[in-house]
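This part of the workshop introduces the protein records we will be handling. A record pairs a protein's sequence with a compact description of its fold. As an example, a complete record with its sequence and its C-alpha cells follows.

_____
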Amino acid sequence: MLKKKFILYFLIFSNLVFSQSEKWKINKEKSYVSYSGNHFLHSWEGLNKNVFGLFVVNSDLNISEIAIILKVEDFDSGNSNRDSHVLEILESLKYPQIRFYSNDLKIIKDEIEIIGKLTFFGKSIDKLINSKIEIFDNKIVLKENFDLVLSDFGVKLPSFMGVKIEDLINISFKIEVNKEKI
C-alpha cells in the first residue's frame, strides 16, 4: 500500500515539476455564450456574459484541457417573464450550472476539434464541438456555434398555444482566455 501511495505521489509531483503547462483564465469581459430557440409563432435568444473557466495551455501553445462553467440564472433574453419561466423549466435551483470539460482537443490550422463532457439539467453527454481558433502569445480565442437537442438532457419542452417549442436550440459562443497568473 505504501509503495502504491509513493508511486502516485511521485507521478503527481513529477507532472507538476516537469510540466510546461499553464492555466489561462477566461476573460469575462470578452467572452459570452448565447442560445436561440424557436416556436412557430416567434423566436428568442438569451445571452450569458458571466463565463467562468480555465484552459490548460502548454508551452507550445497547445491546449490540453478546457473547463467552462455557466450559471443558468445568468442568461438574459431581455424579457424578465421569459427568463423566469426558463429558470422554472430548467429547475435552476436544482441544476444551477452548465459545465463543459474536455481533455481531448485537436488543433488543425485555424480550427479546433473538442470532444468533451457537457453537463446540463443534471445529465452529462459526450459532445463534439468544432470551433474556429485564434492563437496569440498571450491569448486564445474560440468562436463558433453548434446545435443542442434539449430532450437529450431530459428537458420537458414547454408549449405555447398548445404547441411545444422546437427541441433544437442553437448555441453560439466566443471564449477568450488570457495568459495570467492564477
Helices lie at 2-18, 80-89. The two ends are 34 Å apart (CA to CA). The domain at 21-178 is CATH 2.40.128.110 (Lipocalin). The chain has a mean pLDDT of 89.
